[in-house]
Amino acid sequence: MPHENDAEPFPWHLGVYDAHCHPTDTMSSIESIPSMKTRVLTIMATRAEDQSLVSSVAATHSVKSADPAKWAREECIVPYRQIFLSLPNPTPFSAFLAQTRNYLAQHPLALIGEIGLDRSFRIPEAWNLAHASKRNGSLTPGGREGRRLTPFRCQPKHQKAIFKKQLELAAEYGRGVSVHGVQAHGMVYDALKELWAGHERPVLSKRERKKRGRDDPNVEAELDASNGGRNNGPKPYPPRVCLHSYSGSPANFKQYLNPAIPVELFASFSTAINLGDAVGDETPKAFEEMIKIVPDRMLLVESDLHCAGEEMDRRLEDMVRRICRIKGWGLEEGVKILGRNWRRFVFGTEP
Questions:
Q1: Residues 6 or more apart whose Cβ sits within 8 Å of residue 268
Q2: What is the distance between the alpha carbons of residues 39 and 207, in angstroms, rounded to a whole number?
Q3: Does residue 206 form part of some domain?
Q4: 342 in Cβ contact with 282 (< 8 Å)
Q5: Which residue ranges are recorded for the region named Disordered (predicted)?
Q6: Predicted TM-score (pTM) of this structure
């Protein structure tokens, strides 16, 4: 059924932000980013080959300030530093962490991602001459590109150990993280919980919070103090985490709504992953239920596409319109809410 916001012009001028995408997979599309309607892309790396490419794009196009009013037009990306599961050649993980530290130092606003856990992951077969002759030269090396999957897997225990090291690096630098979870939502939650254990926030009863005033700025400071100051100083967990293209159930997501969790959590959604075969105005009921469960302050949108340009803009507009319908927001209201959420996730504060 058509919705009233379908005919309403889309308010691109308010600032729309892609929370997770991969345009460095198709480097020829990078030159189109400054002319896109989307204001800023948060560009993910997923393998070693991406690291230098993301850094090179960031040198020209990365935002230099947390204040959008200070951005030049060519400032249109936020880079993520990747430490994912596979490497082209055996490399000590300590060396890879050291390399990533260098990138984080070079780009003070860079985040970490995407990182995560994937129970379905299987290692592709090695490149051979037949594969090499057919590969698409416009794509960044390192992808699967039609290679068959071998039976070999990366064991969940090993994945989790690496994942926690990555989260600890984000904690060390105070950076946000974009997290990938496939058939491993419980394990992702457990890994995060193991890092924040002992640092949970004290929770006031509804009666006490109402009595003291929910918006009293002194309440949070007092809660931190009553927790022995554990919310001050270095922490063993990252300050902000985005569950990218979250595909778990609403029941699974509810565990992230515990007010004792000290991490600021977000969930981003894409048409590419979350809507599957949905077309036109069709929005799956399961997706509607998911969006209704996620608090307004935690919502983000993403494209998760591997090529920048008009299709990325179109997908983001489609997702924003769908979320606004589900939430009952006007388009301008929704774009403003999503923009504030993105800035909080990326910069840790609202300018």
A1: 19, 20, 178, 242, 243, 244, 245, 246, 299, 300, 301, 302
A2: 42
A3: no
A4: no
A5: 206-237
A6: 0.85
Note whether residue 119 is domain-resident.
yes
pLDDT tens for residues 45-73?
A: 876 666 778 888 888 899 999 999 999 99
Residue pair 160/131 in contact (Cβ under 8 Å)? The answer is no
Nearest residue to 26 via CA among 277, 314, 312: 312
With contact defined as beta carbons under 8 Å apart, do 111 and 178 qualify? Answer: yes
HSE-CB at 197 with a 13 A cutoff on CA atoms is: 7
Q: Which percentage of the chain shows pLDDT scores above 90?
A: 56
- Is residue 190 over pLDDT 70? yes
CB 189 within 8 A of CB 226: no
Q: How many whole angstroms separate alpha carbon 157 and alpha carbon 283?
A: 36
Q: Is residue 281 part of a domain?
A: yes
Q: Which amino acid is at 52?
A: S
Q: List, in sequence order, every beta strand (DSSP E) within the chain.
A: 17-21, 40-43, 77-81, 111-118, 122-124, 149-153, 177-182, 240-243, 264-269, 299-301
Least confident of 169-173, 181-185, 265-269: 181-185
Q: How confident is the model at residue 231 (pLDDT cuts 50, 70, 90)?
A: low
Domain annotation covers residue 212 = no
- Above 60 in pLDDT, residue 216? no
Tokens standing for residue 37: 């309607």
State the Cα–Cα distance between residues 267 and 242, nearest whole angstrom: 5
Burial class (CB in 10 A: 0-12, 13-18, 19+), 288: middle
Q: CATH number, domain at 263? A: 3.20.20.140
Q: Pairing relation of β-strands 177-182 and 122-124? A: unpaired
Its domain, for residue 67, covers: 7-199+235-347
